Amino acid sequence: MNATPCSCPPPAATRTGVGGVAANPPVPRTLPPRPDLTAAIRPPPLYLSRFSAFSPLHVSAVVTSSSPYAHRAYVALGANLNDPVAQLQAAVAALDELPDSALVRRSSFYRTAPVGVRNQPDFINGVAELATDLDPHRLLATLLEVEARFGRVRSYPNAPRTLDLDLLLYDQAVVHTPDLILPHPRLHLRAFVLVPLGEIAPDLALPGRGRLAAWLPAVANQRIDRLATPAP
Ligand SMILES: Nc1nc2c(c(=O)[nH]1)N=C(CO)CN2
């Protein structure tokens, strides 16, 4: 059979750059998500135009976030004592007051079946996204101070509580220290974390564990109901 003339480009593996320059080295296919960046493809700026034969299109990334704080952290909120909805509303307000930090968004609140020790009241859960300049350990210490202000008494593991604040993620950091593990070691196993987190960050990648959305089917048997309660 005769080969049909084709004006299409050669396959990627053999393609060369414009002007016969060898192809660029392969670009990694996946990069950590940066919700504060948007990418645009446009003609190169003037200062790059002398390279335009090599780079006919210019990819630029623009910081769109208005937050002055450099890092993104996700915090889980939970309570099942003393009017838990009011506890969570007050806790969200407290997170908005943290030093060197700003509350970026928070999820709906959810009524959830207790996981672990089952013989206790349902929990109210939610997740907040913070922009922060606190390092992960300082942020954790600050969250523990807020818990203490809300009267949390650590009686036994998984005991009912007025307020629980768990640091889930800090950028894409992986941390293993005696007092802090990131990402939170059980976040991918708990509907009461995954569902609200997925609500505010549906495309989130969990360091070392792939896309958040991929973990949702495995927790579909855990009872969780979104509340209509308006958040503060
Ligand atoms: N539904 C639900 N279950 C829990 C929760 C929680 O916040 N929600 N927190 C726990 C200890 O961190 C243990 N079990």
From TrEMBL:
The keyword Disulfide bond does not apply. Coiled coil: none annotated. Residues 1-36 are annotated as: Disordered. Residues 74-202 form the 7,8-dihydro-6-hydroxymethylpterin-pyrophosphokinase domain. Residues 25-35 have a biased composition (Pro residues). GO terms for biological process: folic acid-containing compound biosynthetic process. Keywords: Transferase. One of its GO terms (molecular function) is 2-amino-4-hydroxy-6-hydroxymethyldihydropteridine diphosphokinase activity. InterPro entries: Hppk. Catalyzes the transfer of pyrophosphate from adenosine triphosphate (ATP) to 6-hydroxymethyl-7,8-dihydropterin, an enzymatic step in folate biosynthesis pathway. Belongs to the HPPK family. PANTHER family: 2-AMINO-4-HYDROXY-6-HYDROXYMETHYLDIHYDROPTERIDINE PYROPHOSPHOKINASE. This is 2-amino-4-hydroxy-6-hydroxymethyldihydropteridine pyrophosphokinase. It comes from Azospira inquinata. The lineage of its organism: Bacteria, Pseudomonadati, Pseudomonadota, Betaproteobacteria, Rhodocyclales.
